[in-house]
Amino acid sequence: xxxxxxDVLGDDREPDAPVPGEVLDGLLGALDDDGDLRLxxxxxxAVLADALADRGVAPGDRVRLADGPEFVGAFDDPARAVRARxxxxxxxxxxxxxxxxxxxxxxxGPVDAVVTAAIFVLGLIPGATRAAxxxxxxxxxxxxxxxxxxxxxxxxxPDLLGQFALAGSAYAVARYGLSRPRVGLLSTGTGxxxxxxxxxxxxTVFLAGLDTGSDPTFVGPVTADAVALGRVADxxxxxxxxxxxxxxxxxGAAVAGGPxxxxxxxxxxxxxxxxxxxxxxAATGPAVALAxxxxxxxxxxxxxxxxxxxxxxxxSRAGLSS
Length: 322
What we know:
CATH architecture of the largest domain: 3-Layer(aba) Sandwich
Number of strands: 12
Low-confidence stretches: none
Strand content: 15-25%
Distance between the termini: 37 Å
Radius of gyration: 20 Å
Helix content: 40-55%
CATH class of the largest domain: Alpha Beta
Order of helices and strands: EHEHEHHEHEEHEHEHEHEEEHH
């Protein structure tokens, strides 16, 4: 049995508007597809109860309701809103995971609010100093996990790129069953042609040091075509600003027949499975299925385990005993 808390209040919601029927229909479809799935639907409880009743569904063993009547809109300051609104649906859903009432969380809210709730409520795991947002590119040669795509590029360090590499690799294993993911560092060139970018030169050395034979395989710097084609690496890491630019470019290219970008985003480096469903209402059901699979595959435990090596390396470099 896997329990998923679902924040159904998206950033397309207007005050006092009903929950979109497409969202609820997607959730009921997810229940039909997985007999072991249990849902805790978070939003205005009375409104949700009426909407489910219209579909012949009453709260019970497989569907429960949690009251989260406040929502974070597209034009709110996400950090301020999540912290100030204790009854915000995304915060209530994350709290269910923290308190052990759910195994994973899915939200339709603004992605920045989802990341904020993940950090504020679930916290960062030991070894992580920043959360990362991972997206998947459906490349011709196989899926590619791209992170960070969270928009923040300042203060990125080699250590932070190492965190992204380890967390992204654990995610690739949990989602796709890879035994030892290949990790690349997004750059303008490969080998000696990487250029004078200090971060990428130092990041290349740092990531190579994480390849101990049991950790992910570091293939070195890779160029942007590796993201679109998928032939070189399974996981590609970069700073959040660059990752966001690449994701936006891929989203535009997909309209012209380029590789598709999965609508879901997964927040990594936090103390629980946190999935952003994307803006399309029909994507909520598949996002729930993904969250359930990641929870069943123990993404959280695998990420903590792989981060232990990074923590040990930090202590060793600082001259501390393990």
